[in-house]
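Please check the following for our workbook:

***
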Amino acid sequence: MSRRPSLWIDHDGRRHVDQGPFSSARWRRQAEEAEERRGKPEPESPPPEPPRRRFRLIPAAALIVAVAALVLAVLALTDSDDGPDSVVSAGGGRPLPATLAGRVYEAAGPAVVSVQAGPAGGTGFVVRTDGTIVTNAHVVSSSETARVRFNDTGRLVEADVLGTDPSSDLAVLRVDPGSVGSLRALPLADSGDVRVGDAVVAIGHPFGLDRTATAGIVSGVGREIRAPDGFQIEEAIQTDAPINPGNSGGPLLDARGRVVGVNAQIATAGNAGNVGIGFAVPANTLREVLPRLSRGERIRRPYLGVTTAPHPSGALIQAAIPGGPAAGVGLSAGDVIVAIDGQHVDEPEDVSDAVSDHRPGDEIEVEVIQDGDRRTVTVELDTRPQRTP
């Protein structure tokens, strides 16, 4: 028996027409449910949220910097400290603290003078309120008078040259204090206390300029430099504070404004300017000769008449100056000085120190090794000549 075609795929003749997934009854129920849903009001959907603005978060560190900058700006506008220990920055605003060099210059500058003696020019400084001024001997040379200026705009004042000492390159002048008003004197430090690395300030009139300050440190102590008479200045102070022609005779000052040395020479390396190596006569040498030069006395120094060099046993005599005291008692080149007045000699400086402790005319006992033998001779010291032979 043939089966009628049917659209109901589950119609197999055994099910009721209202049964199965595709029955007409199921369709009617679904249609009724749909109609019922259409009759009910749709629930209102919530209104859409407005779009949120996105803000860029500021990091905490940036916020702190901004607040700090605001505080500093307010301080800069309201601060009115214009005291002597501060200077205003180039752009205005908050004053900057004074530097060490600035404080030393403010305190010592009024005592520093310009010195003119003939064609030569240099610097000097007041050491006594009675008008006593110190400069270099090579600044005044053989002049009996000089002219000094006490400030950058002041007039030139006549000064008498009381005394010069070419062996220490120091000279003493004096002005009438009544012609310049009140004077400020600079104190002298103990140059034996100076140490490498100490801060120093040089004040002077380089290249004819008005009073100028430069700063640096002590680069070395115990140096030997050549004096105008050809002999050696001992215990000189080396500094890298710029010193130039015209600074000669000016003070080298410590952090307390005390004179540790008198600026005298520079190493030039073939040019006329500063290369960072300058030398000052120690303040202790100035302290020694100042009273005598102030009285117009000639500084007479003892003289042995030898040049020496280091030797393992003491100080080797390189030359005994003809006509000098050492040559007069038979000492000669090649001899080795091992002791003076019973004090052992380790280096040439020991010979210089032993001799400088005496006066011309004093006798000293010199022990030497000569031709392999030790002998002791008595030498009468002479007066140092005006120039090296």
In short: The longest strand covers residues 212-226.
